[in-house]
């Protein structure tokens, strides 16, 4: 687990003390996240979202260390740091902590479930590399036209 940015020996020891090393108890990473209450429950009925997205009360020691690691990772130049900053900008810091904490739990589950697996960071520029420039351009044109502008594009020199 020390391959994951932000998780040091103390954090790894606390996480292992809380969830254990036997991942056969959790069939999938989602089961671990649900057990730890890092999976917000939103139910929809007739096209309406029911619930407020709260995760409930889980293991407070695990939640505390995952929250600390998530905030620490948010300051780093990694994929998880970029994920934290993107979500914090749009939805707030607390929701970003839960989202990155869940991502950390999924990574931890995979590392503990398969001893041969290694953590590979996707990089802080992952979102920038996987953006569709044409779709982004069309979206901006559509938004400007909705505001009443006529848009003509000319390539930059």
What does this structure look like?
The protein has 157 residues and is mainly alpha-helical. Helices cover 54% and strands 4% of the residues. The chain is built from 7 helices and 2 strands, in the order H-H-E-E-H-H-H-H-H. The protein has a two-stranded antiparallel ribbon. Helix 2 packs across helix 5 and helix 4 packs antiparallel against helix 5. The longest helix is centred in the middle third of the chain and has 21 residues. It is globular and about 60 Å long. The model has no long low-confidence stretch (mean pLDDT 85).
Give a short overview.
The protein is 54% helix and 4% strand. It is built from seven helices and two strands, in the order ααββααααα.
The description of the largest β-sheet is:
2 strands, antiparallel
The portion of residues forming beta strands comes to under 5%
User: Could you report the average pLDDT, rounded to the nearest whole number?
Assistant: 85
Order of helices and strands: HHEEHHHHH
Overall structural class, as computed from helix and strand content, comes to: mainly alpha
Distance separating the two termini: 49 Å
Radius of gyration: 19 Å
The rough form would be described as: globular
Poorly predicted residue ranges: none
Tally the beta strands. 2
Strand order of the largest sheet: 1-2
Helix content class: 40-55%
The number of helices is 7
């Amino acid at each position: 687990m020390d391959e994951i940015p932000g998780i040091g020996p103390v954090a790894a020891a606390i996480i292992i003390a809380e969830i254990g090393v036997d991942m056969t108890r959790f069939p999938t990473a989602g089961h671990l996240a649900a057990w730890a209450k890092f999976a917000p429950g939103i139910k929809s009925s007739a096209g309406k979202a029911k619930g407020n997205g709260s995760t409930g009360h889980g293991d407070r020691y695990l939640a505390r260390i995952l929250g600390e690691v998530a905030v620490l990772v948010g300051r780093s130049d990694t994929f998880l740091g970029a994920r934290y900053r993107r979500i914090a900008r749009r939805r707030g810091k607390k929701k970003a902590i839960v989202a990155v904490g869940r991502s950390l739990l999924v990574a931890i589950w995979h590392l503990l479930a398969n001893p041969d697996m290694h953590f590979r960071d996707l990089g802080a520029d992952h979102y920038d590399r996987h953006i569709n420039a044409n779709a982004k351009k069309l979206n901006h044109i559509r938004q400007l036209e909705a505001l009443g502008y006529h848009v003509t594009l000319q390539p930059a020199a």
